[in-house]
Each structure stands twice: as structure tokens, then as C-alpha cells.
């Protein structure tokens, strides 16, 4: 497919007077070339001083970044969190020296000394952009393709919030999301997942500058990457353009403005650049990608581009003054928006209060009273079903709750009734359809969360969490309050067999620092898990729910559930419960049966048989191991007394149970260290030892082992 150059952009407004004006406008100024070189050589010097980094991409992409930041990007260096700022995502995070140069030059709180400590311990200019660490960084990027997906999420958030809060004459949320993406970003499969969905949704305020420099680590992209990338995105429903000369600021600006005029489609601008531009020996080669140029080559490159070769981290005064106009410009833009917001807030005080509450991440008053309570006569009920009921009960209190499933909403019970569907023609809807795109869904959820004003969730089967691991890891790293709902949480799901039955996934998810994993045991634990989720606003949460129906615990346990679930693990039943009813006091239990999810019911049944045999057993339900590990030691000691043998019961890997509480080591496990099988869930569970009888057998073995140790 032959793609037009910027001289004839593929845009429906080509023949209009507005487009003619765009094409004729001169965007360049005499200072532009020196400003671009300042960006280039700050990046080059950062990498050279650190003896580590990626200089080539900043050298080639500096003109497009300058065009965007100088002429289009709306931001305020004094307030990087201004709600209506344009979002800029450097998906090609390895080129972060480019962004650090721009942040410093434009007056963000990133000083020259920070640039000089690029990639060093405790530096504010780390090796890839880190959200919450460097002012002006919208989200952590680096793993290729992730930033592009995050940007789609940001554009979705802008569209949704605009539909919910804007009026005909009030533009409270009205901004663009811009991306600089690399060849590597577009190679990764997630780019097709999110590109397809963005095109379907018609996200017209999403503009991607594709730095097509034809180079990856192994050499020219001709060895692996030869399809027409713009044609691919055009097929997704994107507006596409090509700029043949990556140094032509005027052409780049015209392309960006043409993209801004396209309101019904996201835009991809393919900009042909030269990696390592200006380097006499490394330009347009893989040698410029991931290594410093070398002292001699830096000198030659500065000579080649007319830059003082004897100076490092050099910014001419007039160039610095030119960039720093962004400070006053940003202040004016925000002040103008604030005046409009104040006028709108005066007209619509309740809506303004709601807007501010959501941006601040505060919880609405009284929402907990709407959490459902379940009784034994309501069951048995699958926790996925209970989760859907709990979610729907609180959804009216949380208009910021928005999300959907990877084509599995009927199976995951995650549709919010009466909330409408989010589509191009209905941006006020809150139920999303991600399609069979778990990886893309994960990246989009993070972008929605980091934008602010929304609490996003995404759902799929637990085994398919594997497709989402990269964005989940980054969400944890960013501390983003994303909600992951995973159903069909064990071999108990049954007939679909080992390809769909999770075994190692719980262990894998629990191993992610900052990811809270909750696996409730019945409907009421599930309702309380949703309460935990909504109150947990400093990181992502994964909720693991059953396909199979489970009994609802007796009413006299409900207070323990309400108090215990938020602590991660708690005493569900204890020998003293029976003895107190008989007017007796007792010593500590003989054994603790520690279980999660559906296996808590097996522990409860085994406990009854142990009691009949004169063995005192405590059942501890542990819906969230990481939260329990954070509790005060005296509480952990109370739940898991020292010197009492512990049998853990969970239909997943045994690996991982020992390290959680070193002072209370698990004596023995009932676990699953192999894959499942295709059969009805009860048959699979029984065949692999998840029965009350096997738990009883292992509990007795656990006691015998403890007695041997005592001798």
C-alpha cells in the first residue's frame, strides 16, 4: 500500500480552508535548529557520562519531540498534575534521555545536576522513565508496547470523563494524548491489540508519532520487520500520515495539526528518522542504539552539527530562555482552564464536588452500607457470582468504576447493570468490551488509572492472567489502583482441562511486589474483598474467584468475616468455640488448618472429623496472604500460635507457602504441583486429593510429624 506523504495527508478535511491554512503555515523559527541540538547533546552527554544508555533515538527523534513540545503540548511545568494537561507518553522508554532533556529545558523540577547523574543510584533521571519519581513523567515505560497501550487507556479516560462532566459550553476535560513510539513498540503484539481497539473506539484525541528509524539492536529492521506499519494501522481504522524527513519540523507540525483536525479516528504519523543523527560513523547503525557514542565520536558529532565540542551539558542562554517560555505559557493555560472550571463549579456545585472527589481518589460517603450480606439459605453460590452481586451493589456509589472483560463478561459476572456500554457513540457508558485481548486490556487499564478520575477493572480467567503479566507488573511498580478480576480460579473449574485450569498462577501473582491477591472462601468473604478493593487505592488488586458453587458460612461467623478479611487471615472457627458453648476453657488447638478460597470448606469438613477423633483443630481462612504478613506480630501470633503444627490447603503450587511467615512455618501442605485434567470439577478435585478425607489424613500425618520432632 502506498501511503501519502504529509504534502497530502490522509484526512477527510484535506480540501477545507482549515487544512489549506495548515499546509501553508510556517512553523519554524531561526532558533529551532539550535534548540533541537540542545536536546540532542544533553541526551548524548547524559549517556556518555553514565557510560550507559541509548543516545541514538534521542538524536534522531529530537526534531519531532521539539515540534510537539514547542507548538502543541499543553502542560504547566509548575504543576505537572494539572488535570487538563495533555498527556505525553514516551513509549520508547529506552530513549528517556530525550524526555529528561525536554523536562529540564522546559522548566520542570529536573535540574542539570539530575541530568549529570543519569542512570546513577538515587538519580531523578533513571534508566527508563519512572512514574512518581521524576516530575512530568506520566507513567513508567520501557518494556516495549506498554506505553502505547497505556496511552490508549489515557485517551479512553479523557473520552469517558468528558462525556460524564462536560457540557455544551463547558470543557472541563478536553485534552490530547500524544505518544512517541519506536519500531520495537510496533513489533510487540500488544500494539496490534490496543491499536485495533483504539481504532474501533474512534479515539480522535490520541496521536502517535512513530519514530521509524529502521534500526533495532540486531541491526536493520529489514531482517524482521517489513510489513507496511501505517497500512496496518489504517486497517485498524486509524488516520495515517507519513513525514519523509525526520528533521523537517515544519512538515512534522503540519502532520500533527492535521491529526488534531481528525476528531473521529486516532492518528499515526510515521516519521522517517535517522538513529544517531549527526554522528559521522554511527548514524543509521545499530551501534547508535544502546551504547554511548564514545568520547571521540561525541566530539566529531558536535563538530558535524556545529555544537561546541569542548563543552558538556551546554545550553546557550537564548536557547534556555526560548524553552523556558513554557513556564509562563503553561501558567496561562492552567489559569484559563481554572477560570472556566470555577465558573462551571459555581453553576454545578455537586458535579464539581464529585469531579474533585474522584480526582483525589476519595471514597463516597456511606457506600459500605450497600455491600450485600449472604445467608446459608442463599447458597451455595459461586464466588464469581457473589462478586458480581457485590460489584453491582456498590457500582451506583462509584460512578468512577469502569471496565469490562476480555470477551468473558458473562463468564466472569462483571457487567454493571444500567451502566451502559462504552462505545464510540456512547462514551458515557461504563461497561467496556476489550475483546480477546488480555495483554492490551492490562495496558489500557493502567492508562485509565494513571489518568485519574476513574477506577478501572478488567476480567478474565485466572489462567489467562499470564497474558497480562507485563502490565500487571508495571501497575504494581507504578502503584496504580487497577482491579483485576480472575474467575475459574482452580482445577475445580473442571471440563476445560489443564490448558484452562490454573495451577501456578496464584504463586506467580503473589510473587509480584505491590500486587495484592485476594482469594475469598464464600460469598460474604467476597463482599468484604470488594470493600478491601475499593479502600485499597495505592496499588493493584487481583481478585481470584471460583466457577463452582460454594456453601455460605453460617450467620454466627459473619462478624468474624467482616473483621477478619481486611486483616488478610483470621480465625474462622476454633476449638474454643465449642468449649465455650459447653462452659469449658481450653488450651490452644492441636493443629491449624490454614486454607484459602474454596479449600477453606474442605478444612472445615476435616475439622469436624478431627473433632470427632478428639483432636482440636483451628481453621484459619487466609484470603490475602500479603496483607496478613503486614499485620502486627502479636496478631499473627494470635492467629498462628507458635509451636502449633500448620497444614496449608490450597489447590495450587506448594512452592511459596514456607517463606510467608518464617516464625510460623507450614508443617505440611495439601497442594497441586502438576497440571490438572479434563473432567467435571468435583472429579478432578477428588482425584488430586482435594477432599475432606485427604485433608484429614494429612492433618494426622502433620500431627505425627510434630510429635516426632518433640521427641
What does this structure look like?
The protein is 41% helix and 12% strand. The protein is built from 26 helices and 20 strands. Helix 19 links the parallel strand 13 (516-518) and strand 14. Helix 2 packs across helix 3 (56-71), helix 2 (32-50) crosses helix 4 and helix 8 (190-201) crosses helix 16 (438-451). The protein is elongated and about 90 Å long.
Strand content: 5-15%
Number of strands: 20
Rounded Rg: 29 Å
Instruction: Walk across the major sheet and give the strand order.
Output: 10-9-11-12-14-13
Percentage of residues in helical conformation:
40-55%
The average pLDDT is 94
The number of helical elements comes to 26
Structural class by helix and strand composition: alpha/beta
What is the rounded distance between the termini? 80 Å
Largest sheet: 6 strands, parallel
Indicate the low-confidence ranges by residue numbers. 1-16
Instruction: Tell the overall outline.
Output: elongated
Present the secondary structure layout.
Elements: H1 17-24, H2 32-50, H3 56-71, E1 87-90, H4 96-105, H5 112-116, H6 146-165, E2 177-182, H7 183-187, H8 190-201, E3 206-212, E4 215-216, E5 219-220, H9 229-235, E6 239-243, H10 249-261, E7 267-272, H11 295-304, H12 317-347, H13 349-360, E8 381-382, H14 383-394, E9 401-405, H15 409-412, E10 431-433, H16 438-451, E11 455-461, H17 469-478, E12 483-487, H18 505-510, E13 516-518, H19 523-535, E14 541-544, E15 549-550, H20 558-564, E16 570-573, H21 575-581, E17 591-595, H22 599-612, E18 617-621, H23 625-629, H24 633-639, E19 646-649, E20 668-670, H25 681-687, H26 692-710
